[in-house]
## 1
Amino acid sequence: MNIPTENINVLWSGLIIEELIRHSIDYFCISPGSRSTPLTTAVARHPKARKIIIYDERSAAFHALGYAQATGKPAVLICTSGTAVANYLPAVIEAFQRNLPLIILSADRPPELRDSGANQTIDQVKLFGSYVRWFFDMPSPSAHLSPRFVLSRVDRLVFQAGQMPQGAVHLNCMFREPLAPEGSGVPNTYLDSIREWLQSDRPFTSISNPSAEGKQVLDEELKRILEHTQRGLLLIGELKNSVNKSALVEYLQTLDWPVFADITSGLRLGYDWPSFIAHGDLLLAGDTTPRFDTVIHLGGRFVSKRIMRFLQNRPPQVHLHVSPENQWLDSTQTVTHRLSSDIVAFCSTLNDLHLASPKTRTLRQTSEAIERLLQSTFDEGEEINQPAVSRIIAREIPAGHGLFLANSLSVREMDMFGLRKEKPVFVAANRGASGIDGTISAAAGFAVGLQKPVTLLIGDLALMHDLNALGLLQRIGQPVVVVLVNNRGGGIFHWLPIARFEDVFETYFATPHHFSFRPAAEQFDLHYWQPNALKAFRQAYLEALNAGKPALIEIETDRHINAKQYEALLQAVKTKTERVE
């Protein structure tokens, strides 16, 4: 292995990048800048490095998170000093909330320029506070510090990135000039202490990070409680794409407890089993809701606010949360037991207990009645409506593709209305902090990680928030079809109590606009459709999928009509759920 030695900055940067690649961390998201020149040059010249240039650091960070959601591996962010690194903060928070790995290599000024008024210099030490899992302030490269120190720090970075719970790790790299690969070189003997490393292809320190596949056994008390439960419910929240969904469903086939699965579990689109209650969220919209003695919650958060309200209003005697990531979730303050275990392994244990609940069949029948109501309400007409858009995507997206859901209405409507029983797809959403920022960037990263085409369902405000990321879609090698529901404002606010206050609602919350996004599609060279009927949307979506190129499908809807349709639907659902208690 030949490490460049034009100067000490170049050499250290070469060591850092080479060691990351030896740990199979090989995807780099570079935002241009001067102080980061040594790191950028090392990536640019490394034959095994996969790299993408993203001008906006906020976009780059969310792109890296999308990649992590698809692969379970961290991407590496590289940026210059100053506010450049500060733009990573929203994605760092999302990584913390979601337990997603992320590696940050930020360039910084040397000690003598800190706190001196030097240009483009801010305090970057522990800039992200408690939202990173590990931080190290790398000293300015010096021939007085051993290369073994450099490699060891990179290995610590990789080690911390893999620990549970995962999140962002940050190596802040100080560089003095010269930054370009020029200069007088370094002493010939400097690399002598790592000759063995140079002659191999192995990392300096081999790391075996803990997997989430450990199986913590249920204690006898919990087994007894579960076996004697008369009314049990299994809730499945967000599951990482690394979870073997097919194996999980095999165990669920014989479980006779009703199962409510969140859209981000990946089980709603492509799977079915006898105890699966497809429309658990809407089922809980009635005036009467079922009671359960025991609730088991697998995985992460839920999109559905009704599920959380249900747990709070009707707390079970036993509420067990099972997570492979040591994740603490208890916003309802109802959890009575916790278990750190692989999800599939835990369900194999449940299989041995022969659990049953008398409510499963009734709930399944009620859910099927709700599905028939949705079909007659949204699927049989020609007028475009938002629930029907979600349902068409759920039915038509090809097996094995990715589906990325923007926050606000997009993810909620797919959670309420989307359903298919075969041909699974990969589902993701930024549900850690549930912001609308960085959505297009994350969807693009999701496509890179999956190495599969991705459909992005997004609203107009979320798209405007990340508009420049449309420029990524031509450069990532996998087609992303953006389905934009343009209701000309914040449609989700019609669901909230503030909608009743007409003096402030429209201007300050609905925030109406009159933008069309055809010019944006033209600017970023995207195929564009603007269907005005459901049949036309389905046709446009299929054409976009078959074209295999980045595309934007813009659907205009009226958020006032959408809100009225939703209220009418809830009233109809209540008549279907009168006897489910």
Note: The chain is about 35% helix and 15% strand.
## 2
Amino acid sequence: EGISPSEYDAFTAQLAETDEVLYLGDNTGEIVCDRILIEELVRRGKRVIFVARGAPTINDATLSDAVYVGLDRAATLITNGSDAPGTRLSDCSQEFLEAFGSAKLIISKGQGNFEGLSEVPGPIFFLFKVKCPVIAEEAGAQIGRIVLREQRAEKVSE
């Protein structure tokens, strides 16, 4: 079972409305594939900011990993300033928080980022593989399924 057509349609509609994407990376091994998607976004006229982990954490991508695979040639690179698995806003740098707060579209990769941001309002699309029963229930998907899920909460106005 693949990504829900309705979620994909929502993603492409929101993507068409923005010229900038904040892309929260996940695993080091996946960032080569992330680069392919990011290069396609750039080809479509989008400016992409790729966010890596602030320090080595489990198998999450760091800034040096992103540079190693050439992401710096397609996107602006920043870190979230944190060594926590997933993204916990309370642990993140001011630079990241400013980028996150002003983002018109966020692609958030990985179950850890979903766990940390699923209650945060904003224009977020989570892209991850469901790995456990708790997340399967929350995401409304079976274990092993790839999910593209829109965060439907409204962004807090500043």
Note: The helical segments are 5-16, 31-43, 63-68, 94-102, 111-117, 133-139.
## 3
Amino acid sequence: MVISLFRRKTSVSSKPQSSSVKGKILRRGFGGSRLFAPLTPLPKLACDLFLLSVRIALVILLSTARLVVPPSKKSLLGETVLVIVTRELALTITGAGHGIGRELAMQLAALGCVVVCWDTDVEANRDTMSIISKDGGEVHGFVVDVSKRVEVREAAKLMRKAGIPDVSILINNAAILMHQPFLEHKDEDIQKIFDVNVLSQFWTLQAFLPAMLQNKKGHIVSMCSMCGFYGVVNKVPYCSSKFAIRGLVEGLHEELRLAADSSNINFTTVYPFYADTGLAKDPKYRFPYIFGAVSPKYAAGEVIRAIQRNYEECSIPRCLLYLDVINRVLPKRAMRLIIDFLANVKR
């Protein structure tokens, strides 16, 4: 069941082919018209390769320049932002009305966004809404279990009936983490992890992406994890769900990139290391000033910065994104040595 909380607003078919037809198709293909298509002429191939090399070089130069001079920030004033704030630990709700979800809602409201909060915790959601309303922001709240497709669709309908503007920024922040050896996980726990961490993003995308495409405007933010880059001991289901999120976002991004009239749909995948949200304990890695836990306030600020600059990927801290580049280049054994060194593990 979806519960709408109080609303605070201030002034501010084809037929099977016969064997004879199939035979004709096979013979025609074997004759060279399709199966043995003529090769690209060498001069044209050389020209295409040259143009490709030039374009790659330009992209590398532009990307390098962006490291020094980042893109300008876009205004978020008036945007309607849906923040999925549910965070759970060991399948017990800790309230997402705190943590990164609450900080995102408050900071986005301060930037002039219309904020919609979805949470499974009624009281935590009310508290978040109360804080935003007192500061003069516009906020709406709904109690929704995003792992259930029916509730997601029902909540989307309630939002339209309430006159809430179409969602232009969707932030999928729901997550469950269980820390224990793989064989100790119960079947229902693994199912729940994937329902909340992965399938919930499918349901919210199905509910809100059509309006973004119709309006030719939208931004989809998926909270992933550094566990989406590397497998981590005692977090096998969680890591698997985060790898799945990467596949979902990259696949959908490519699909829309090649589609017509979808160039204004932006994607941002966020890879936090450890945020002090109660979802996981600080792992006590070496170099704590780089690998230590960060506050939810700082993490939310980094997410908003990535949204404003239309970054496709963002890690928290920022430097950790380059570890994925190293991971793709180095042999697996070499990367494991680096990870063991950082974790102060002796083998």
Note: The domain at 71-342 is CATH 3.40.50.720 (Rossmann fold).
## 4
Amino acid sequence: MKEIDIRQEKRFTDYQSKKADMLKADIPIKNKLIIRKILRPLLRCMLRIQRKFNHFHVELLNEIKYTNKAVIYAVTHIGKWDFEIINEQITKPFYILAADFININKGFNGLFMKLNGVVYVNEKSNIDKHNTKEIMIRLLKAGNSMMIFPEGTWNFSENELIYDIPYGTASISIETNTPIIPIAIEQYENRFVINTGEKIMPDNSISDLTQKIRDILASLKWEIWYKQGICKRNKLDDDYWNGFVQQRVMEWAGYSMDEQIINTFVPKEKRTHLELCEKFGFDKIPLRYRNIQFNKLFKEKYNDERR
């Protein structure tokens, strides 16, 4: 491991300890909402300059609707640029839930995330995931909005509009009585298309709300695909999927495909299905699952409970 990564690991450990100590001592969240409202136009301007420098174009199928109260932005995930592109479109400040502390929290990116507002989570630690959830609940109750990517990682699937999502987003929404604004994004080379849905109000069932979030995000993404039009299969290269994945990975220097394993949620029933396919030699498994099911990180990560 590189020396800089070792230092980052140490910083991440300290960051997790600080969260735990804050919760243990019941230290209240410092609400810097006024400061972040002042910074918001500057951050959006910086993102706009970056987008134009990269020759990215954005198409909004509809406008994002705002309220004076906290909301949870639940966003689909296709690649590195999702956060920057959608962030520029949102006029009000929010915190982002992020998993890749090692690559993100350094240099200019780390400073930008800090100014924006960020909560990092260690996906390999159940304790830190619990602590992170409690921090997010406190932030929402203090009037801060949150952005969450419920899929947890970039969607590299050949046939799933939206990955399976854990109960976390719905659970936090219900516990804080915070509405959810669903947002789907797709990337076509240098063009990004954003489709925003109607506000989802929390209800009493975590499982039902989780399914509703996934269904609505899938519908929003399908609307983007429908608008994009039909592409004939014979116009695609035989190796199209691998090329698509490689293109996404190359957009972020230092990105490891291990992040796909660590941050991927696969429910128990689907894991059982994959195990049976492996046992009986069924080879028609989608490439995405074929690439992760034999991975040691995948087999070590999951227990039988959604978190």
Note: The chain has two domains: 3-228, 266-306.
